[in-house]
Amino acid sequence: MPGDATARRGRRRGELTVAAIARLAGVSPPTVSRVLNGRSGVATETRRRIEELLREHQYQRPPMVVPSSGVEVVFYHVLTHIAVEIMRGAQDVVSGQDLSVGFTDLLASPSTERSWVEQMLARRPVGVIAVHPHFTAQQVAQLAAGGIPLVALDPAGQPEHETPSVGAANWSGAVAATRHLLSLGHRRISVIGGPGVYLHARERLEACRAAMETAGVHMDPRLVRNGQYSFEDGVALGRELLSLPDPPTAVLCGNDLQALGVYEAARQAGLRIPDDLSVVGFDDIDNVNWVGPPLTTVRQPFREMGAAAADLLLTLIAGQTPPQIRVELPTTLVVRGSTAPPRH
Amino acid sequence: MPGDATARRGRRRGELTVAAIARLAGVSPPTVSRVLNGRSGVATETRRRIEELLREHQYQRPPMVVPSSGVEVVFYHVLTHIAVEIMRGAQDVVSGQDLSVGFTDLLASPSTERSWVEQMLARRPVGVIAVHPHFTAQQVAQLAAGGIPLVALDPAGQPEHETPSVGAANWSGAVAATRHLLSLGHRRISVIGGPGVYLHARERLEACRAAMETAGVHMDPRLVRNGQYSFEDGVALGRELLSLPDPPTAVLCGNDLQALGVYEAARQAGLRIPDDLSVVGFDDIDNVNWVGPPLTTVRQPFREMGAAAADLLLTLIAGQTPPQIRVELPTTLVVRGSTAPPRH
Asked: Cα(B291)–Cα(B286) distance, rounded to whole angstroms?
């Protein structure tokens, strides 16, 4: 098992003990332990001072103090299919080492008093894969001070500092989807993007624009919308677009849920897919095989992304530097029944 | 943390050590350890003899030998939505104790050499929740000998011996669904059941029959089918039923995926739901809100079932006897847009 003493012996470790840090901070050693273990009962100012000292002196827990038996995958607002695929990928990699794959859903978490970082410090996994949460440099440092390596999977923002991360080729996936519609003859193409706070949402929108403009097709700003990655926003924005005087003949969606929402908007408007409207999704969640017609979409390889994140994590746990800090896996356009040439 | 020394001290423990068991079995102590830890390299006959001795003498690992930090949820052929809801429920219960919830998907598991019980013995969670796997009395004994409590969630067959289990009220859910269709005026009602190896599939089918017959409506055997819990079987069986000379006006499905398959069969036959055909599912997975029209279905409370299983497990981990060995949670009929009175 790479997660415990063996691996940690290989890591550079600070010189100072908990007692020494406590002296520097002017507190008792148990107070430092409380901060290290993510427990409450330490004043904010004191906590901050202790965290700074731990970071400054690169404090590392001595080996074998706290046993652990798994890596933890922390989710924030992720579809169930995606969550399970990511955990399957992590399982593929770590189960050979008899490590478990732990599941934490922040939205479902009943303990609101503690941040997810504090929960991790209390539970002490050998490493953490964080899917989508925003996290601050301070939180990363807090985990690092606790000796818990972190890998980000498709983070909402650019990862802070040197946090290794895994993502998928959003740009080329969106280009492939756009070119597919262009090659079918579509010119009035709508784009429904995800929330602007997500870097990958911006990347996909700009990729659609680039693919259209390099093909000599103008992207009509009246056909561009942004919304949550939800079925409901797909329905609402789909209705808006389909009730325009000159509606689109095709819609590129930011994710599959939005696309299923556009299906519903089309159904309500009496339009048939793909005869009257082409729809393309993004993600390839299992749901899109169970709708009529099956959805054309851009596949993100979530299982492989989970495996790649676990690989990076095992490297960090072993005290080694990963060969690259950012891993990006390819996306694939999967053409099914929801796209066809426009009627006119 | 209840999983370790504290809890185990409270449990009745066998008198014999590994060395004593080894003497009785006529093998070396490391051979007994190999069996306890789920490792290979022990002849089948020897393994069986050792397992019998461990069981007979109620062998329990001494406390603090192997640390662990989580409960493990083992899935076999479960939809992603259901898996995540069950883990959320388990998280609700155990995260307050700083235990993690581990994820093991047997179908996705890359290690085919070892059984899931052997994987658990090697990884040593503080307890296991098994969702759907068939398991034998011998496997249960093997886990028990390793000191790992087990709770079954909605098992495929009747749980063996005293394994505590959690399920949902299949019978009353199926009765409610059938009565809903009867009250709308349906008389030609099809039932698509799950695989006959699942006890709950038989229970639901018999409940539909009972509800119809007590209402004085004959269940036409030509309208009854059995299939896998899959979209594909829903499409295939839906096509068969809709092409009968006297087709049904409503279909009760064994799960939601089959119901989505019937949607597709209806679409291909040019029938509209609910105008031309009423459809009812079972489970209430998130997908059924994202189809047009939203599906009327029987809700199984998967999150609550996961929480109930975790509650039972914590009781066992604490060395106590649960107040009841079988917990059954209520199901609820959720009426949405896929059911309406028949045309004629």
From this structure: 10
